[in-house]
Structures are given as structure tokens and as C-alpha cells.
Amino acid sequence: MNIIISNRSDLPLFKQIENEIKTAIFNNELNEQDLLPSVRSLASDLNISFLTVKRAYDNLEKEGFIKTIQGKGSFVAPKNMELIKEEKLKEIEKHIEQIYKISKISGITETEIKEIFKIIFEEEK
Question: What pTM value is reported for the model?
Fold first, then answer.
């Protein structure tokens, strides 16, 4: 697993780690029961505080993406397809909010936006 973080990002480091791990899970780069690097090991690899990695792992565990077994490590949790769908819906909502803002500023109507979506979905068939 290759986690890349950026000091130039607006996202806090722990959020970047969370996003990288979630993306790896969604893309099947990390599979159910895969062992994640230890908190200290990942912190050392990324040259950041282990508390930052711990915070990311704690959040991922609360959200159901990983599970930690005392003395054994942190593992990718079994995929909960409903959880994955919900995560993707949140991502889509953010993009649609951006589309809405751009359309308002540009004077693009709801009908025009719907037509764009219709064309995109028809091309996929």
C-alpha cells in the first residue's frame, strides 16, 4: 500500500491518510483482512507523528473500514456494501453541490443540467 500525503493540501494529514486508505479499499487495492502497517511504522514511513496516524486509524475504525485487534494490528474490515454506497453518495453530493454553484453563477438552468446528465447516462448504455 502506497499512501501519499501532501503538506500543500487543505485537508489535514489524518484526513489525507483516511482518504488514501478508503480509496485503496474501494479500488480493491486493499482487501478484507489485509493487515495495515502499524501506526508507528506508517508514521515513520510518512515522517509524521504517530498520533496523526492513530487518529486516522481510529476514525476509519469508527466508520467501519478497519478493525483493530489488540496485539495483532489493524486489518481491513469486511466490506459493507451499504457503507461503501453511502460513502460514494456523499462524494457525489459534494460534486453536485459544486455543479449547482457553477450553474447558478453561469446562468445555466436546471433543465440544461438534467439534459447533460441524461446525455451522459445514455452514452453509458
Answer: 0.71
